[in-house]
Amino acid sequence: MKNYVKDGFVLLYLCLPILIYMAMMVAYDASMRTIIKETVFNASVLILLLSVIFSIGNKVVKIVFSIFLLFFYIILFIQILVFYNFYNFIDNAILYTAFETNSNEVVGFFNSYGKWYQPLLVIFYLYVASRILFSYRFSLTKYKIATIVLCISCIAVGYKFIERSASLLTITTYSEYQEFTSQLSKNITKKTSSHFTNVFNKEEQALYVVIVGESTSMRNMGIYGYYRDTNPELSKMKDELYLFNDVISPRTHTILSLDRILSLGDYKKPENNELGTVFQLANQAGFKTYWISNQEPLGVNETLVSLYARAASEQHFVTNTKQSSRKLDDVLLPLLDKVIQDSQTSKKIVFLHLKGTHIFYRNSYPPSFDHFKEEPRTNFPSEEAFQTINEYDNAVRYNDYIVSLIIQQVKKQNTNSYVLYFSDHGDDVYQDYNGFGHHEGIGTNAMYQTPFIVWLSDEYKQRLNGDFNGKLERKYILEDFIYSFAELSRIEFDQFQPQKSIFSNQFIYKERFISPGVNYDERN
Question: Which residues on adjacent β-strands are paired with residue 348?
Fold first, then answer.
């Protein structure tokens, strides 16, 4: 009897992550159906693995299944962290982002969402669990037939609820991701695309700059009506800017969003991303293209964005995995100046990929921009919320400074030029939900609402038929960006669809789907 009690306590310890996860689902009002499915599947997997580990005498088999179990635990702990912060489950969007992350981003994520002691608790738990797996013997394992029946039952029950498997989703998604990037890289890394035909640009001289921001929501920008002065520099030149007021990103994660923005892929036909990209289109129009980035090109894998950037004539990554990720965006300015001063190239399109207002906001600006310290407005007041909002707003203010410097740098050239700025997506920082960041399972408006700002030189305006003032309220989704980019850059090609360009007189509003069956403009 004593051994059975001991077995019970050991089994309770090994079930602890499942019980914590179940308690969190109950606390956050998940449906009873979901709670049952999640718990039953996880318990079935756990019991199956434990039955094999404690019944099989072969040491190699024991080690292999123990590794599977530790991997299962790690996925469970990640799911707990995701559910705690975002009230949702691991999905493909999170996994795609994780596959392209790097050590600096992992540290930043845990610094933002985790507590210092949480990794230590996980490590301690896994250490004790591994000691149990390799040294403890359950009394029940002597009943071989009962163990076999239990294993078969677990397989049957697990299969019934397999759609709730975060661990299986991780494995299958990684396999799909590897196949996806392998196939995609065969086409998008080429300098040209056979899909684009009769590509033409008649200009002899041009300097076009596209600024791709990071995690910056228009909801926190003073120039768009935010109550704080987070855009003092852009506000000074507001009369020179075209502010488009209703532009959204197609996704709330960088990789998935830029996949649509930089290519022909869209909600209905995401596979069209293989057909062509903005880099290939500009190359074929006779421009020299540049990708200058303050984000790392490598994570666990080469990122999808860096694969797209390979098609640019030149690529410059000022931050890599061997360097500090805390370089601020002003590091891009000398590189931009070098490109501008290159007199050997008359037609240039420069893409600047900012760090912007990336998560772990206080690392996105220098101490001199620690401007906001007073208590901010929020429906979710707490000391953590106040600090995070202030840090985000400071990052937005520094981002304003960088974007304005880029415009001034281009303006000084007195040539045919434009500067276009948008962000890959936004962050919600204690506005519509009690937290901060971006997650499609929550998908608040602030996570989709992105600034879309255009500056035009005098020479560019002279060649422009009219202006954009009557087009600033158009409802637009950035998955059609390639058509707006083409029109702004005066690139003509057979596949151009004017109804998908925000600048076109032939623009037609289309439903803005952000997930299956969810139209952004019709949801509550």
Answer: 207, 288
